[in-house]
Design goal:
The chain is mainly alpha-helical and 195 residues long. The chain contains 7 helices and no strands. The protein is 78% helix and 0% strand.
């Protein structure tokens, strides 16, 4: 197991990049419910974190199974990671630059709405499975938990900011998240080519 400083830095960077959508949604939830109790804030952040833990593991499992069955597929993993992360990061970046904001009021934070928000904000984390396919199962699990912890902290901050200041920072969060995902995609691509 290779748990280097770069491993942890990469996991934290993934967590920050992937959590930006959940951060924006958390701010909207905080704005929508300014009297939200700390317990509910923990539940909301925990749901987002749980999805961000599960999605990379699901992606890793699928890609890992395919890569073992077809070893030739492994050489395409850096390309797939670059394409997926550049697409997702580019979309987030463009949305942030265009300053897309929903004019409708954010939905009430009920169980159904929260689960839909969790899925919607973590679906891009499936692509992380492609980028960590060369990790062992233990490394993939550790990476996913670090992503989840970072997501939890960022979502708690988003809820608190939303409760206090509204969603003025949401566009900047998308730009930052997009740049981070594109950077991670490039780093994985270059590292994959060097191996």
């Amino acid at each position: 197991m290779n748990l280097s400083f770069l491993f942890f830095l990469n996991a934290v960077a993934f967590g920050v990049g992937l959590a930006m959508d959940a951060f924006s949604v958390s701010m909207a939830n905080g704005l929508n419910e300014p009297q939200m109790k700390p317990g509910k804030m923990c539940v909301i952040a925990g749901v987002f974190a749980g999805f961000q833990i599960a999605m990379p593991l699901i992606g890793w499992f699928c890609v890992h199974a395919i890569a073992e069955a077809f070893s030739a597929f492994q050489k395409f993993i850096p390309w797939i990671a670059l394409i997926l992360l550049a697409y997702i990061g580019g979309s987030m970046l463009l949305d942030g630059i265009r300053n897309k904001t929903e004019e409708a009021e954010p939905p009430a934070v009920g169980v159904g709405a929260l689960l839909l928000q969790g899925i919607a904000t973590s679906i891009d984390a499936l692509s992380v499975g492609f980028t960590i396919a060369y990790y062992s199962a233990a490394e993939a699990l550790i990476e996913s938990f670090i992503i989840g912890i970072v997501t939890f902290v960022i979502c708690m901050a988003g809820l608190a900011i939303g409760k206090k200041f509204g969603t003025k920072l949401a566009g900047k969060a998308s730009v930052l998240g997009g740049l981070i995902l594109i950077g991670i995609g490039l780093e994985i691509f270059i590292t994959g080519l060097i191996r």
